[in-house]
Amino acid sequence: MDRLQQSDNYRRMTAMKELTGMDEDKPEEPRVVDSSPAKMVSSKLAESTTESELSLTELSGRTVGDVRCADPFMIAENVNVYYGDNHAIQNVTLEFGKSQVIALIGPSGCGKSTFLRCLNRMNDSIESARITGTITLDGQDIYDKDLDPVALRARVGMVFQKPNPFPKSIYDNVAYGPRIHGLAADRADLDGIVHTSLERAGLLKEVKDRLDEPGTSLSGGQQQRLCIARTIAVDPEVILMDEPCSALDPIATARIEDLIDEISENYAIVIVTHSMQQAARVSRRVAYFHLGLLVEVDDTDRIFTNPQHKLTEDYVTGRIG
Amino acid sequence: MQITTLTLIIAAMAAGAFYFGRERSLSVASGPSRMQTLHSLPGYYGYYTAIWALLPAMGLLLAWNLIEPRVIVGLIVQGLPDAEQSMSPGELNLLINNIRNLANGDIVSGEVGTVLQDAAARYLEYANTGRWMLAVLTIGLATLCASLAWRRITPKFRARNHVERVISGLLIAASSIAILTTIGIVMSVLFEAIRFFREVPLSEFLFGLNWSPQTAIRADQVGSSGSFGAVPLFTGTLLITGIAMFIAVPVGLMTAIYLAEYSSARIRTITKPILEILAGIPTVVYGFFAALTVAPVVRRAGESMGFEVASESALAAGLVMGIMIIPLVSSLSDDAINSVPRAMRDGALALGSTRSETMTKVILPAALPGIVGGILLAVSRAIGETMIVVMAAGLSANLTANPLEAVTTVTVQIVTLLVGDQEFDSAKTLAAFALGLMLFLITLGLNVLGIYVVRKYREEYD
Q1: Sheet holding A86-97, edge to edge
Q2: B179: which of A52, A158, B113, B454 is 20 to 30 A away, CA to CA?
């Protein structure tokens, strides 16, 4: 049974390699921060292959590395996701710490975005999706029947791949969340929230004279920072980011990365990215997904300098993906 | 030779020209990689030759058919005896018609004399010669042009560019047909309307409060003064349209919101086709539904509450028209709501909005321009709607805002003015064109406004 499973997985894996070679869309981003571990990746490449200390080369259900972290705030335990018959996420266990950025990486279609969307129940709106396992936020099961997904999403914010400001003014974009959750007592209060949120998103200076202009009039990078400001305004505890820079140019990307770095003190941040450099620059821990399995989790520099699993190594050195 | 036969022959020649043109392009291209030496693909050389075989010959055919009858008539008139030549144009026209009828074996009015028989014989002869000339000329022209085109084919010849130019010309011609037809319709309505305004001043038509288009046919006729104040018609139209929109907008919009956001996929697959069936019911069916079912119900209900209701009330017509327009409003709103990108929805949900907050605060504002544009289109549809109001609304032009009274609409009056035996130069008949022109201008204005609103306020989500 076990061998059967393995060989099946192997077949899927090789098929995946052929596919991803063609449809993978990985934006090449120049290294803005030079001291990043990404630099080490290339230098380490030669070493690690000659050492050939990687005993783990096959896909198995087990995750290599340390899925636990010191001060877990959100815990996913044995999470499985099915889209109809498709088993998209298989038995993933992962802990997310407070004030910590964790990056989810892996080839296209490996399930990292699906997993991310489980964390704030955005998969609920997909009729064919079915989720098993438990995910707790601060000790509370988020898939509990009594728990309102609306309240959950106020605590677990999300920033999307493409900037999606509402067709409203810049002010109303940021004020939207506080308004629907009744966070501001009066207009002055709301003004305060909007200003702090914009400031923390590093956008205030650029837009403070035109808060009543439509949010869609901003540039792509500004729009994405507006979306981050909008998310911060609700004062969530966790922020999920689904490839937040994939539609942006390198300068805007660098600004967003700086921003992530700054706000990471106050939030648990989970970021899905296709850019290894970005993962190396912004995250403390990295989780590598492959075909719906969580292959390896570890501290960022260990993943990039000394990965334990062959697949992780192949991915971070650019051999697959 | 018949025109159809000739057309078929030319088409066959074009097919042949295609073959020879293609073959020649292959034979003039030389060397091992002969395809590369050609400027265009071989097929284009074929099309190029075929176009030259087809278009000039077809043009000649068309021109000949326009000119030939006049030439023949001219020749016949020349050959007639002097007495007939000095007839008045009207009589001459009749005579020529008779000659043509005799030649074609149709019924002739009046005696068939020798003059007529002679002329008919000559007519047949001319027509016959003409046909043969045409056949020879077109086939000759097709052959000539095709062979000239065929000779021009060299490897460097840019056949594709020539073919593409002809094709783009065809596309332009096709798209101008609709535009030209519109212009033609507007012109014909406009000129008749101008004739009307020569008899009735524009100010009376636009601001007069009394509509009673019966004009006296005889001088001694009583009680048919004819007054053409169109205000009651437009207020009647407005009243019925208002009632219709009062029904259609809320119901249609809520239907669209439900279908787009709340219904399950199964309900959607059942409901949408049913709504489309509603849109496909002929308006005449709605008309007798309004007149036979809704109007009596409205009347009885009104009377039970102590109101006096006319049997052809504006309310009944408006209600049914509203029902008819629901699918239009709901499908246009549905499109507008669905065109709001999924990212908007996700963004709102991810901030912790409930479904209804997402709907009212994000999606509806984003879709509003599309919805407003759709409603304006629905209004112009309601204003132009004819059959329901002809059957369910009244004929009397009351100036009232009471939906329980009978009113009449612009379209109803156009129909009644043009039905039956008419004098085509009386103000009564011409009034229909003036009304038609006004109606056209109003719906045109609404459509332009609708399109403008949609364009101006549409959010560009890539």
Answers
A1: A86-97, A72-83, A129-137, A140-141
A2: B454
Structure tokens at B356: 């209804």
Name the residue type at position A186: D
pLDDT at residue A145, rounded to an integer: 85
User: B320 is written with which tokens?
Assistant: 């049914």
* Mutation choice for B interface testing from A150, A230, A239 by most B CBs within 10 A: A150
CATH number of the domain encompassing residue A289: 3.40.50.300
pLDDT of residue A29: 42
Question: Considering only alpha carbons, which residue of chain A is nearest residue B355?
Answer: A150
> Which residues in chain B come in under a pLDDT of 70?
1, 31-34, 215-225, 458-462
- Tell me the H-state helices in A106-247: 112-118, 149-155, 170-181, 187-200, 204-207, 220-233
**Would you say residue A247 lies in a domain?**
yes
Phi and psi angles of residue A318, each rounded to the nearest 5 degrees, phi first: 85, 15
The range of the structural domain enclosing residue A136 comes to: 62-164+236-316
Residue of A92, A39, A100 whose CA lies nearest to A69: A100
What tokens does B26 get?
């292959």
Place of tokens 């815990």: A75
**Could you say which of B349, B357, B459 has the minimum Cβ distance to residue A167?**
B459
Residue B99 near residue B76, CB atoms below 8 Å: yes
Distance CA B290, CA B169 (A): 49
Q: B212-457, what's its fold?
A: MetI-like fold (1.10.3720)
pLDDT tens, B193-249? 999 998 888 888 888 888 888 766 666 665 566 788 889 999 999 999 999 999 999
Say what the pLDDT of residue B265 is.
84
Strand extents, DSSP E, B153-245: 211-212, 227-228
User: Is the backbone of residue A215 left (phi > 0), alpha (psi -120 to 50) or beta?
Assistant: alpha
Structural domain includes residue A120: yes
> Which ranges of B80-154 would DSSP assign to H, the alpha helix?
82-85, 89-104, 114-152
Strand A238-242 and strand A268-272: pairing? parallel
Residue B340 gets the label, from left (phi > 0), alpha (psi -120 to 50) or beta, of beta
User: Which helix (H) or strand (E) segment is B61 a member of?
Assistant: helix B42-79
Cα–Cα–Cα angle for B241, B247, B249, nearest 5°? 90
Do residues B379 and B329 make contact, with C-beta atoms less than 8 angstroms apart?
no
Q: What is the DSSP letter of A296?
A: E
Give CA–CA dist A227/A210, Å, rounded: 16
Q: Which residues pair with A169 in a beta bridge?
A: A214
| Bridge partners for A65 per DSSP | A297
Q: In chain A, how many domains are there?
A: 1
Q: Which of B421, B412, B415, B268 is nearest to B330 (CA)?
A: B268
Q: Do A167 and B460 touch (CB under 8 A)?
A: no
Domain membership of residue A241 (yes or no) is yes
Using the beta-carbon criterion (under 8 Å), do B348 and A157 form an inter-chain contact? no
Question: What is the mean predicted confidence (pLDDT) over A2-26?
Answer: 44
First to last CA, chain B: 60
Q: Identify any residues that bridge with B211 across adjacent strands, giving them in sequence order.
A: B228
ipTM of the prediction: 0.76
CB contact under 8 A, A150 and B346: no
pLDDT of residue A197: 92
Q: Which two tokens stand for residue A99?
A: 């004030």
The residues, ordered by sequence, that sit 6+ positions from B37 with a Cβ below 8 Å of its Cβ are: B29, B30, B31, B155
Cα four-point dihedral sign A157, A159, A164, A167: positive
Of B346, B365, B459, the CB nearest to A216: B459
> How far is it, in rounded angstroms, from Cα B462 to Cα B459?
9
Q: Taking CB atoms and an 8 Å cutoff, what residues of chain B touch A120?
A: 350
Domain ranges of chain B: 3-157, 212-457
Please give the full DSSP string across B367-399, using - where no structure is assigned. Answer: HHHHHHHHHHHHHHHHHH--HHHHHHS-SS---
